[in-house]
Amino acid sequence: MKTYKQKTDFLYIGVKLLKWYQTHKRDLPWRKSINPYNIWISEVVLQQTQVKQGMQHYLNFVERFPDVDTLANADEEEVLLYWKGLGYYSRALNLHKAAKQLVTDYNSEFPETYAELLKLKGVGKYTAAAIASISFHEKVAAVDGNFYRVLSRLFADDFDISNSRAFQYFSELTELIMPETDAGCFNQAMMDLGSEVCKPKNPLCSDCPLQDDCRAFAIGKINQFPVKLKKTKVENLALSYQFIYHDDQFLVKQRDTSDIWKKLFEYPKNLDFNDIDFIEEHEKVIQHKLTHRNLEISISKILIPNKCDFDKIKTENDFLSFSFTEAEQKSFPKPLHDYYIKYFS
DNA sequence: AATTCGGGGTA
DNA sequence: TACCCAGAATT
User: Fold this and answer.
1) How far is the CA of A126 from the C1' of C6 (A)?
2) What are phi and psi of A300, to 5 degrees?
3) Domains of chain A
């Protein structure tokens, strides 16, 4: 680590940040209480996800699953349904597993310490710290991407944030400014500052409560921090699907837990028809960009005129079949993830 | 210690 | 386009 002065020399910065937070904190639904369940769900929704994107999913999720027991007792497929379109689907699977853990091992009550919260599936160092500090007032820093950015600018520190030791490094830097009390507010203040003021591009330094303390601002090199050396790599992937339908039904298949879209549903691939009568109507090609992949998805649209043949396909291949609504049928094809899970009354 | 998990927003 | 986001599990 670079050489810094004594810890006490920087503590006033954290105090100043807390003061700023009192009047500038965002009005967010999960800040209306410190109920650990709601804090937990919000923190998981917001992993690698911006507030604007995760907001509606959070609201829908806690409305349908308002507490640990409701979530634990729900079907996995329905939990996934409420996560549809949000990405990083292991988050939903782990939420469900952790809810079951809480019911079985903790009598449906949240453990109240950082160390114990870490044992829950899908709860890592950041999320455990967020819950412990916000809901249980434990003094532990919830170090995330906002901390990396704010601290690297504040101290004009060029430590590579893509380095696997970055978490440890910026955790130690946090100690320099973190007040003894109000850890939950401090953590959320760092998030709000990073999100609303100390933004990745074009930070609003004129609105920043820490402008006078910011080393990067002082030397006019705000845009050089944080330093990130590793670049994102993208690969191309081709998927070939068959949209096989009859009347108001079509075939989908559940993916496994490997690779992308864990346990979500997709059209069948490479299905062998043998003696079954069918009509191939047309083929549609969709370009779909993911963070780490560029997908080219080709979909053959196939009508099975004979209901018996359709049932035969289902049976022989053990596919799940869902009905779809007329509106969804008319809008075909849409982006693929819209078709994964179907529920109809 | 490095890679792999999504999808929306931003410049 | 490339990069970012209230990261965690897996390899």
Assistant:
1) 8
2) -85, 125
3) 7-224 (1.10.340.30), 235-339 (3.90.79)
